[in-house]
Amino acid sequence: MSASTSTIAALSTPPGRGALAVIRLSGDNAHEIFAAVVGEKEKFIKESARQIGIYTIVDDNGTEIIDEITAIKYNAPRSFTGENMVEIFCHGGAIIPRKILDRLFMSGAEAAGRGEFSRRALLNGKMDLLKAESIAGLIDCQTEKHLESAQLAYQGKQLKSLEKLKRKIINILSDIESRIEFAEDDDVAESESKLIIENKRELELIISELEEDLRRSDMVKSLDEGIIIALAGPPNAGKSSLFNEILGYDRSIVHDVPGTTRDAVSEKIVFEGITVKLFDCAGIRITADAVEQRGIERTLSAIKDAHIVFWVTSADTPLTDDERNGIIDAAAVDDKSSDTGRKKTLIIINKIDIVKSEEKKQFCADRSLEYIEISLREKINADALFAAIKSSTAQISEDMPPPEIIINDRHRRIIAAVASNLRDCVFHYGREELSAHYLKKTLDLLAEFLGHTAGDEVLNEIFEKFCIGK
Ligand SMILES: Nc1nc2c(ncn2[C@@H]2O[C@H](COP(=O)(O)OP(=O)(O)OP(=O)(O)O)[C@@H](O)[C@H]2O)c(=O)[nH]1
Ligand SMILES: [Mg+2]
User: Fold this and answer.
1) Domain check: are 315 and 329 in the same one?
2) Whose CA is nearest to atom 11 of ligand 1?
3) Distance 253 CA to ligand 2 centre (A)
4) Contact 170, 442 (CB under 8 A)
5) Exposure of 286 by Cβ count < 10 A (0-12 exposed, 13-18 middle, 19+ buried)?
6) Which of 102, 222, 244, 361 lies 20 to 30 A from 469 at CA?
7) Which amino acid residue places its CA nearest to atom 17 of ligand 1?
């Protein structure tokens, strides 16, 4: 496939108000097109590559100045795209970059499609697909954790891990293929059977490593979507009051009738840079009311899905056996928290303006459960509450190492398929032809991951997710 020779232009910085904006121009005629829109044509033509110069962008009559800019000239192939390029640094805002782009379009440039600069860089061998995707990851990430994994990919660690994985699969496949070839020898030497066992073990290890990476990438994805905090506990404890206090406005109805909140209500907030999805839930109690019972089932499922549970309880009510069991269940380890150890559970003993509860404090102490005592009505200990939110959310995102090879949905899909193929391979281990078939399929999938077999359609799908100007 040969690179397109048209010349493309686009704004590479976000549109809108800003001190500066960057416009990129790339293609065979990039230098001629730029020279056509500036007042200093000769100067630009004589300018050496990779030098920064000051120019004026002029209107099509060459009389009116649109902007004074700086620009860097790049000669093919020593540029981001591998083509002739100019990077223009102009004043920002809604009008000037638009006017400069219009001048470039009028002089022969075409509007760049999404990710077209990166795509040209890929086609010209300036970077591989994984590098292009890691740049997209750097730009698109919403959390520190996501950034960490995109940086690992950008630094080439992802590529190394994949190549190592590929080598291991090739080695195992070649052992199997040689056994297929020499199948007449019924006697399997001792060294040979040792190798068969070792290879199977190696495959099992690879599967568990890939499964771990899939788990980590799911965690990164869920952090992007927000750390889930469920506010649970018995009715009338102050869950909705707490929900409103954290959000900073009256979102949920607060009332002294127990059972006021019937459904799980959720809101997203960004707390100290971390996205949090907060759930206000129906109070848990034994009830004959079918609607309330549905609400309680939703509370239990919110607890199950949450990264953190805030168990809100009132200091002026006794600790019942049902509540004890509810707390123990909420704090139990489940799948979601397996990456980070225990699910974080914090007991919030509310309404200490009325009375203090030694019984509830003792219960928490006996079970090493973290607790804080507050009064939402009298604003007692509000600082401790917000400090607890900060530390528990930060801990969740810090506890887990970033994935090594999966930084986007495409990778996740391919690695899930690789793991499933290898599981099939292990299942049929000993049936050489079948094992070889699954290993070959795995190698095809790895080639797809590395972009070695990516056709136009696949590239379109990948680059469509990039932004314009990248
Ligand atoms: N004295 C006192 N009352 C409080 C405090 N916090 C909340 N309340 C009151 O307790 C009652 C119940 O509050 P909610 O926030 O609706 O409690 P809830 O846990 O959401 O209750 P349900 O939705 O019924 O499960 C309301 O009358 C609140 O005003 C507090 O710190 N001290
Ligand atoms: Mg409520």
Assistant:
1) yes
2) 256
3) 7
4) no
5) exposed
6) 222
7) 238
The reported pLDDT for the residue numbered 188 is 61
The answer to whether residue 467 sits within a structural domain is no
Q: The CATH number of the domain where 36 resides is what?
A: 3.30.1360.120
Domain holding 66, by residue range, is 8-126
Question: Model's pTM, two decimal places?
Answer: 0.71
* Residue 136 to residues 161, 462, 465, 467, Cα–Cα distance (Å): 20, 10, 8, 8
Q: Can you give the C-alpha Rg of the chain in angstroms?
A: 30
Q: Judging by beta carbons within 10 Å of its beta carbon (0-12, 13-18, 19+), is residue 11 exposed, middle or buried?
A: buried
Closest approach atom of ligand 1 to CA 234: 25
Tens-place pLDDT, residues 40-86 = 999 999 999 999 999 999 999 988 999 999 999 999 999 999 999 99
How many angstroms separate the Cα of 142 from the Cα of each of 221, 442, 465? 10, 31, 15
- pLDDT, mean of residues 304-331: 93
Q: Which amino acid is at 392?
A: S
Residues 387 and 412 in one domain: no
**CATH code where residue 330 lies:** 3.40.50.300
The rounded distance, in Å, linking the Cα atoms of 199 and 157 is 25
314 lines ligand 1 (CB under 6 A): no
Asked if residue 383 and residue 439 are part of one domain, the reply reads: no
Asked whether residue 230 falls in the same domain as residue 216, the answer is: no
- Model confidence at 337: pLDDT above 60: no
Where residue 333 falls among pLDDT bands split at 50, 70, 90? low
Q: With cut-offs at 50, 70 and 90, classify the pLDDT of residue 341.
A: very low
Q: Tell me the C-alpha distance between 279 and 302, whole Å.
A: 7
Q: Residue 59 corresponds to which tokens in the numbers above? A: 């209107």
198 Cβ neighbours under 8 A, 6+ residues apart: none
Angle in degrees, CA 337, 339, 343, rounded to 5: 25
Mean pLDDT, to the nearest integer, of 148-175? 94
- Specify the residue with its C-alpha closest to ligand 1, atom 27: 256
**In a shared domain, residues 272 and 304:** yes
- Give the distance (Å) from ligand 1 centre to CA of residue 258: 9
Any atom of ligand 1 within 6 Å of the Cβ of 353: yes
Please report the atom of ligand 1 found closest to the CA of residue 243.
15
Give the contacts of 208 (CB within 8 A, at least 6 positions apart). none
For residue 303, the CA-to-ligand 2 centroid distance in Å is 15
pLDDT in tens, 177-228: 988 887 666 566 667 778 889 999 999 999 999 999 999 998 888 788 888 9
Cβ of 238 less than 6 Å from ligand 1: yes
Q: Do 358 and 394 sit in the same domain of this protein?
A: yes
